[in-house]
Amino acid sequence: MSDDSLSKLIEMAKPVRMTAEQKEEQRRSFAYGNTAIENTRITRELVDQVADEDKSG
Predict the structure, then answer these.
(1) Is the pLDDT score of 49 beyond 80?
(2) Which of 8, 15, 38, 54 is packed most tightly, with the most Cβ within 10 A?
(3) Are 18 and 26 in contact (CB under 8 A)?
């Protein structure tokens, strides 16, 4: 990908605003992706469970 193409994509993405739900989904996806690399026993369900427990207090 050229620098020009990347710059255009970045400019297109700037006005995009994520909802709280989308941000939470992205946060969980990031957590899963980073932890599953180090520990293959990590599942999306486990990440969801821990995130839900964290939200409830």
Answers:
(1) yes
(2) 8
(3) yes
* SS3 label, residue 17: coil
d(CA 35, CA 47): 9
Instruction: Give residue-wise pLDDT tens across range 21-34.
Output: 999 999 999 999 99
How many domains is the chain built from? 1
Tokens 């990908």 found at: 1
* Residue 25 structural domain: 17-56
Give a yes or no: residue 11 inside a domain.
no
Q: What ranges in 1-57 are assigned the alpha helix state H?
A: 3-13, 20-38, 44-56
